Amino acid sequence: MPTEKKGFSRETTTWRELVKIFLRNKLILTGFIIFLIMLFQTVGANWISPYKPLKQNYQETLQAPNWKHPFGTDRFGRDILSREIYGARISLRVAVISISMACLVGGFFGLIAGYARGWTDLLISRVMDIFFSFPAMFLAIALAAMLGNGEGNATLAIAIVYMPLFTRIIRGSVLAEREQDYVTASVALGARTAKIIFRHILPNVISPTVVQAAICMSYAILIEAALSYLGLGIQPPTPSWGTMLNEGRTYLEIAPWMSIFPGLAIMLAVLAFNLMSDGFRDVLDPRSRRRPGAPSKG
Amino acid sequence: MGSNVWQYLVRRILSTLLTLFGVSILVFLMLQLIPGTVVEQIMGIDAMVTKETVDSLRAFFGLDQPIHIQYLHWIRDVTRGNLGISWRTGKTVMELIVDHLPVTAELTFLALIVAFLIGVPAGVLSATRTNTLLDNVTRVVSLLGLSLPVFWQGTMLILIFTLMLRWMPPLEYVGFFENPLRNLLLMALPSICLGTASAAMIMRMTRACLLEVLGQEYVRTARAKGLRERLVIYRHALRNAMIPVVTVAGVQVGYLLGGIVVIEEVFTLPGVGRLVLSAIFNRDYPLVQGAVLFIAIIFMLTNLLVDLLYSVIDPRIKY
Asked: What's the angle, vertex CA B76, arms to CA B71 and CA B81, rounded to 5?
């Protein structure tokens, strides 16, 4: 039997079984459902959105939520629900691209550092330490300020912020894998270094990276929204959740719905990734499921 | 402390100095990322100026020197506490930072208190009632706390407590020594906002550490002796479980520093974060550069301090 009652045996579990184990976890399932809704909004924005996100209607400015506009309208009479739906597309796009970039570039350096060790490792690790010396949000703001605003630069800033994290994680895993017999055997058989790293070691160090990517995805959504909120990320009139919140600030007293709904959308999106990453951690780390020896008072 | 600890401390301080050198290079190079030269930023790209004027400005800012010489001049000034002159105000960057620092320090300190006051009791409750409704609710609330965007939380708190209920004074900053009560009232919402995510992290850490400690034999012995459960938890288990939690506080200072720009902007607080943001919009790059370096140094020193404290407060740790 490939799977145990709790957790799974890493060597024999197939992908299908792994998915089953993951979906049996309530946290992952809830997060995944919210994520699917977000994905549906992103892909189907053109069909499900009741109005065009940029369509202005000066007869219907600052309307409170009603049947025609369930989330209300903004100062230009634009439908908040439609802008929220299109905003999901931008948030998810920035998060996916930035974290993928961070994962690819950071992962590459991590593979090299962990395999080469010695001076190469020291140099790469020291450079990455420099990036760790800044609070993440602060570094993103500083980079976005220097690079200039816009979606591309915000994506790049977030990617740079999270790149060192992936380098560190992959490096650690590679250092452990490098000592395994299969690597020694490959070296003895005369396999090329690139082949050993990318074909043999890489598949074995991917799983911790996936969990980290889920965690970072939530941070990326938060940072993108914060950058746009501060006016350093996506620029109006493009509908991004952060930009919408920024626009809503001025009208907080007379049109609070302009701020409430985009913020809820950000929270749900971040919550989805947090739930999934917590669930992944539960499933992948059996220690976190262990009951304490102490009797419960409740 | 044994000689190993001293060796570790020296190694850790040296490595911090090395990283600090790297940080200074990165912060210096940040200014080179800006599109256009510094002179163009000051004069405007379309400005009608003669080549002589541009050359004299370049010479004034030392931009006619090779980049490594520029860096050496800059780092020499930085080590003397001179972070440059703000282009907009004409004041020194250090002077501006020092002027705005008390607000940021107060906000960070209060946020940390909020984080501990909420995080530790919630973590203890959750750990002592594992797998009950209360535990599950606490865990879900902590996840929600981690998922709340601070700027939205701030906006909602202003909407509810300042605009709707009118419980809070208008957002006009008053210094602590000017009017302590009003200052604390004003700082309450931003501190709660900034401290929420940290409270969630501290709660999770307290829960995890306490669960681990509660499973250990000395706790079982304490129970076997007939000690009351409250004493077992607060006197025996929590004291040991708190060691890693206290060190998390240091990490949280860094996290809180990351959030100050947003929170100070939401609540219009005149701190270092808002200073940086206004410098960004005014294209006052020496001020941005100086403030970024300053925050990085504070962040690194806090991490260093946490590492050093860790070795002092937990004698079990071997180096």
From this structure: 120
